[in-house]
Design brief:
- The structure holds two protein chains of two kinds.
- In chain A, helix 5 packs across helix 6 and helix 5 packs parallel to helix 13.
- In chain A, a hairpin with a 4-residue loop joins strand 25 and strand 26.
- Chain A is of the alpha/beta class.
- Chain A contains 16 helices and 36 strands.
- The two termini of chain A are about 20 Å apart.
- By secondary structure, chain B is of the alpha/beta class.
- In chain B, helix 1 links the parallel strand 1 and strand 2.
- In chain B, helix 1 packs across helix 4.
- Chain B is globular, with a radius of gyration of 14 Å.
- In chain B, about 60% of the residues are buried.
- Classes of the chains: A alpha/beta, B alpha/beta.
- At the A-B interface, helix 4, helix 15 and helix 16 of A face helix 1, strand 2, helix 2 and helix 3 of B.
């Protein structure tokens, strides 16, 4: 019979205010199998941990249940305490905070529920066996999904540490959203000028394999040993041969909108998305191309002196084994069309369209114009929180709009000094180094008019866009006849990102951003081991934050790669071979191919087993057990809960 | 005294258990009648556990898993869905109201849903009254 100790944590008042911790300890001391029970203010503190250590020695305990916060918080802490004395699997956590004390108001009810939870864990631990972690080899190669600034930074950091990286980007060039920006706040650095050196560095890095115009299609496996299938779309132009002479583009007869320019500038079917694109090569968009059948235009191939164009290029599936994955898929803007009261006028544009307008290589060659007539707009209205902080659209704050709108207003005033700029805002959120000062500069020195209030409606009247709003500081209605309106649209999940999430078995939050393992303490990891997050894929964030998170994710990967083996939970399925009838049901339900038939009975490959237990539930003769969560353990837990 | 049902909730580690944690962190209140048992995957829930719970006096059994397509173990929740459908038919056959068994998809970010479902289910079981077979072996 085990000598079990129970340690009940007050967690200050977090547990103690709605659970009578003293009573829980007293009750547990009487419980069969428990030889000692105690309570303490903060079990996770040094004195708390020492209390457990002392009592293990003094009372010769060989199993410990800590009744405290969720196992996701301190399971490791307490297992490490116990590890010095006995096997770590003889330590279990009874979650009486997140799933008990915080969910009740009545102390009597809370206490009763807490006792049931602790009792159920005592019953479980009675049958726990000792195990050592399974060691598995790992592939020291990292997959980075997304080639924006976050993905580039993460790839560079992992590669600089000496490990191989595969950087996959869906578009023909890396660079992402940052490449589309003109200047960056608050320093007004030229965005491309600071980005392109990193783009070049990552493309030339000997440890980085760059796969642009490619998409991850399938991922299998587990931490340290993922198997990835990447679809490389044919660009019909040999990257190595293309010398960017541009003759093909001149001869191509097909004109379509350029996505990089927010569809505001035309491109040919054969194109380079922007001049500094990496890899520096043309791409033939086969959907736009006049095509190969029935008649081939072939103008581009005819003029290509280096014979880079190859119409016979095929899709390629590239298979890779990687040990870790960094998700850096970025963001999209909430579509303007979703806010009908703001209309769908040519002279109402979004922030990224304005960025392109400001860019020297953009649709207007850097001139700010009124799209409907090409004239210089003398009155511009900027609307913040367009689709953010709005119960009808997105509840959350998109975080960067206050800053980039201020930047937009400033750049407008620099371009059109006699123009008037108005900014509608709910609040100004300028938390960041030098941000508040930048806002002050824009409001005071650049003489931009800030109006606190929302815009209710905008509509066309002749040449003008009439903007209706309310100034909530004066309580007066505001009407502005604007030439141009720039909407700071909400930042939303990247299109197609939920497929990535499903493929990786990683959770997304209610807004479609990747969910971190812990919102405060593990913000760069996904809950699934071996998968890390960087950039706006996790939540709206600005460039320095995206870069910092990318470096953080890379550091996690490098730390993992610094070891030669990784430890895997040994709590896998075990087949009772003596009684196995060989029906193979378990083999058919196992999602990992861990169960196999040896010609006689079913067996489990421990390395592949992830411990889900689907086989144990499916086995018709109950001959599969999950280590430390056996049928009998669960049944005992059920019984004490229902007592 | 009013009837206070006993409810066992099997929660998968990756979605529903984390959702339950989030409900707590967000200080959302729900009836204390529901006591959780953590399993790695909802697919671990052997139909035998459901019957065992009902036999031992549970007035309701809840299984919480990841949303379809989101299962941490690829397809465990689909197995659960099939098993629960079958179990509900079986319960009806043996005279137990199948509404005493409930399957819910609750993700790690749905703390509010967790609290809501627990409240709803407790209310529903209260209306159904005590499990007539509970505690009679």
């Amino acid at each position: 019979m085990k000598r079990i100790g129970v340690f009940v944590c007050h967690c200050g008042v977090n547990i103690a205010s709605t659970v009578d911790v003293e009573k829980v300890a007293k009750e547990m001391e009487k419980y069969p199998g428990v030889v000692y029970a105690d309570h303490y203010e903060y079990m996770c503190s040094d004195p708390g941990q020492n209390l457990i250590k002392e009592k293990i020695k003094e009372k010769r305990l060989d199993a410990v249940v800590v009744a405290a916060c969720s196992p996701s918080m301190h399971e490791e802490t307490f297992r490490n305490v116990c590890k010095e004395h006995f096997n770590q699997y003889q330590c279990e956590i009874a979650n009486i905070r997140e799933q008990c004390s915080w969910t009740v108001l009545d102390k009597k009810e809370g206490t009763e529920k807490a006792i049931k939870i602790v009792e159920s864990m005592v019953e479980k631990i009675k049958e726990n066996e000792d195990f050592e972690p399974i060691e598995v080899p790992l592939e020291k190669k990292c997959l980075v999904i997304g080639g924006g600034i976050a993905g580039i930074q993460a790839a560079l950091d992992v590669a600089d540490a000496g490990y191989k990286v595969i950087l996959v980007e869906k578009e023909p060039s890396i660079g992402g959203r940052m490449a589309q920006l003109s200047e960056t706040f608050p320093t007004l650095d030229c965005s491309q000028c600071i980005l392109t050196p990193k783009m070049v560095a990552v493309s030339r890095h000997p440890n980085v394999e760059l796969l642009t115009y490619s998409e991850v299609k399938e991922i299998e496996g587990y931490v340290g040993n993922f198997h990835v299938k990447i679809l490389k779309k044919p660009r019909y132009v040999d990257e190595e041969k293309c010398n960017l002479c541009g003759e093909c583009e001149k001869e191509c007869p097909v004109i379509v909108p350029n996505k990089f320019e927010m569809d505001k500038k035309p491109r040919k079917a054969i194109y380079i998305p922007f001049p500094q694109a990496v890899p520096a090569t043309y791409t033939l968009d086969m959907e736009a191309c006049l095509g190969l059948a029935p008649l081939r235009c072939s103008n581009c191939a005819d003029v290509c002196e280096v014979e880079a164009i190859d119409y016979d290029m095929k899709e390629e599936i590239i298979e890779e084994d990687v040990g870790a994955i960094i998700i850096a898929t970025g963001y999209d803007l909430y579509p303007k069309e979703m806010i009908v009261e703001y209309g769908m006028d040519d002279d109402v544009i979004n922030g990224l369209e304005f960025e392109r307008m400001l860019s020297a290589t953009g649709p207007t060659n850097g001139e700010i114009i009124k799209p409907s007539n090409g004239k210089i707009p003398k009155k511009v209205v900027f609307v913040q929180c367009a689709g953010s902080r709005d119960a009808l659209h997105n509840d959350y704050c998109s975080k960067i709009c206050c800053m980039y709108t201020a930047k937009h207003a400033l750049l407008y005033k620099h371009h059109v000094p006699d123009g008037e700029a108005y900014v509608f805002y709910i609040d100004i959120r300028a938390g960041g180094k030098g941000y508040e000062e930048f806002i002050a500069r824009v409001r005071e020195e650049e003489r931009v008019n800030y109006i606190r209030g929302k815009v209710s409606k905008m509509f066309r009247d002749g040449d003008k866009i009439v903007v209706w709003g309310v100034d909530t500081l004066t309580g007066e209605k505001v009407e502005i006849e604007a030439d141009l309106v720039v909407l700071a649209m909400a930042i939303v999940e990247k299109e197609g990102v939920r497929n990535v999430a499903q493929m990786l078995k990683v959770a997304v939050d209610k807004d479609g951003f990747f969910k971190e393992a812990h919102p405060k303490l593990r913000p760069v990891e996904a809950l699934t081991k071996g998968i890390y997050l960087a950039g706006a894929a996790q939540a709206p964030k600005d460039i320095p934050e995206a870069v910092a998170q990318a470096s953080g994710a890379a550091a996690k990967v490098v730390a993992m790669f610094s070891k030669d083996k990784i430890e895997k939970e040994p709590l896998v399925a075990v087949v009772d071979e003596e009684h196995c009838s060989g029906c193979k049901t378990c083999i058919s339900v196992c999602p990992y191919g861990a169960m196999y038939f040896d010609g006689n009975v079913a067996k489990c490959r421990e390395v592949l087993c992830e411990g889900c237990g689907t086989c144990a539930a499916a086995c018709p003769s109950n001959n599969i057990e999950m280590r430390n969560l056996q049928d009998e353990q669960i049944k005992k837990m059920i019984e004490v809960i229902l007592r | 005294m009013s009837f206070e049902p006993k409810i066992v909730a099997f929660l998968c580690n990756w979605c529903s258990y984390a959702g339950a944690d989030l409900a707590g962190v967000s200080r959302l209140k729900y009836p204390p009648n529901v006591v959780p048992i953590r399993v790695m995957c909802s697919g671990r829930v052997d139909p035998e556990f459901i019957l065992h719970a009902l036999k031992k006096g549970a007035d309701g059994v809840l299984i919480g898993g990841c949303h379809p397509g989101d299962c941490h173990y690829v397809s465990g929740n689909y197995r659960t869905r099939k098993r629960v459908t079958l179990m509900k038919k079986l319960l009806e056959e043996i005279g137990i109201n199948p509404r005493r068994l409930r399957l819910e998809w609750i993700s790690a970010s749905e703390g509010d849903k967790f609290a809501r479902v627990m409240t709803e289910f407790t209310e529903e079981i209260k209306k159904l009254g005590p499990n007539p077979y509970g505690g009679k072996e």
